[in-house]
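Input:
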Amino acid sequence: MNILIVDDEPSIISALRPVLQAHGHVVTSAADAREALVQAESKAFDLVLLDLGLPDADGIDIIAKLKALGSAVIVLSARHLESEKVRALDEGADDYVNKPFGIEELMARIRAAQRRQAVQQGNREDAFASCELEVDFVRRRVVRLGEEVKLSPKEFELLEVLCRNVGQVVTQRKLLIAGWNDPAADGQYLRSYIALLRQKLEYDSSEPEFILTEPGVGYRLAVTF
Amino acid sequence: MENYLLSSNVTGRRTRILLVAAAVFVVASVGTYLAQGNDRRVTAVLIYLTGVIIIGALSGLRLGILAAAAASFIYNFFISEPAFRFGLTSAEELVPLVAFNLSAVITGGLAGRLKDSERAARLAEAHSAFLLRVSDRLQQSVRMEDVTLRAREAFPADGVTDLEIFVVRGNQLFALETEGDTSPVLPLEAIVALTDGGAARRDFCAFELNGSGGQLGLVKFLLDRKPGAGDALPDLQGVANLLSMAVDRCMLLERLSETRALQRSEELKSAIISSVSHDLRTPLTAIEAAASSLRSFSDSLPVQQREELLSTIEEQCQRLNQYTANLLDMGRIQAGISSSQFGDVDVLDIVGVVLGNIRLNFPDQKIEKRFALKSALVRANPAMLEQAIFNIVENALLHGRSIDPLEISIHGEGKYCNLEIFDRGPGIAKSDQPHIFERFYRSEQPQNRRGSGLGLYIADGFVRAFGGAMAVVSPIDEHGGTRMIIRLPLLVDLSNVEVEP
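Output:
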């Protein structure tokens, strides 16, 4: 992938560059928002790793432009700034990684973004398959570890959104739109349905392993391929 | 309007005196008439004289003289011979008249003087009662603003409608107001200007307030301008003295609390500095040692040791990360957590997230769960709640024994959700328990000296911000053990909420 790292801290770039290159990515860097936009306009990037605290602008302000230029965007944000993350995701960012992060976590996020982009470029997928979970979007069938699971239509709609964004965070807002066509719908409905989905899919719904909660942001489907 | 000085039944008393005087007069008249009829003239005069003396003593000079005049007239006209005719033909007729009037003047005068001093005594008593009342109120005031508020409760009274207090700050006088922020300001010279002419003004009366450190300020008593309203003004100088003492005391208290706050912030600063230098340096030292070992000896080190050094670096980085997060969270608690960052959060959901983290960090730890609720909705910031619960669980794991399972239970109790975390460690010493939620508090016991002393403080700070409370029970039994309880107010019970099919 063609990756642009936007961060004003050179040590972050020098730490990430060799690892990403070792994984076969082409890495370009930018130290501020202006340079990032210049780079993004001159060359097509598959993915932008965007630090939000830039010296010349709020990183959130350039997310929409980067998305319009066709890049996926993963935001690098401090742990305690949930509202900032939600704002970045609402602006179109695909995912976020809390700083400081382990390289494993970052690579997992990059893989998820890559998978999603591959799907978007091809045709819309008709099915989803991971080690634990198979979902047929056309026939609306769900198989969990070889056993079919019956889902209500609403449960299925929510699971479908999570599957289509597998490995990536899905905001409450996105799920409310998917399930109720209304971003202002009562979050209580969503919580209830997620609880039902967990009861049907999780080994122990009080300690979910697949449908993870990102406190204050949304949910993330974590499976292995 | 409350009136402390004039008793409300004054008119009633006057009427009573008048009635008694009239009765005495009638009785005396009848007695005199009967005695005269029996030709006992001396007795008759003496009876009348006695009546006049009684009336004079009872009701003062004016009624005494009136009674004397009436007695003179009646005696002369109706009783003494010749009846139904005025006449001063003999000394015998003149003497009773002189006696009546003279005794009326003397007894009335004496009675009047007595009554005046009685009235003065009553007024003085009322004044001191009023001062006592004001003083009682002022004693309850701890802050400067309270002084005005408390003093005002005593007014309006006796021609004083209200009062204003100004205190010296710098070289200006600031009004001590409770409502609003528009406090009127006077120049310092106003103290002299207003107090000097105090007596001459009709609408207010001002006194200087003085304390142990000199000039404190000024009090202005606003007077009722209605005529007659200010006849019995309370002891305003006395009130002003009381106010001086109250303002002086509050100023001293204020200065004391400022000094204390300053001292506390100095203590906090040095606690932060010593904590930062220890808790940042220790992991940094470990990281630097591990990294430089890897660089210098990587060829000669066996693979396993290289791995260990790398894990050390990762672990210490996590420790640094946790520590900086703690410092940030401490800052957020100190700055005050706004409820605008709160949403509806399911405690069970967050506990699930925390358990996920714990399983990653402590893979061998056994955890027993007892959840009596299917859902426990509270109003909170989800990430802060996660941090609070994580800190408690982590604390229990660090201090408990890893071979024993950790117990986590959630149950409802009325309008509250109780989240309890129970470890079978040695327990928390009773002497430590009052302090465990304090900033930078670390138990003296050596096994507890790990950690930054911020985890429980942060958990407690967050839980309080959500309207909840934390409690600790330790030891649980003779084997020790600690139960940490997070109590949060529930929004609704999800078990009653219908889910559409």
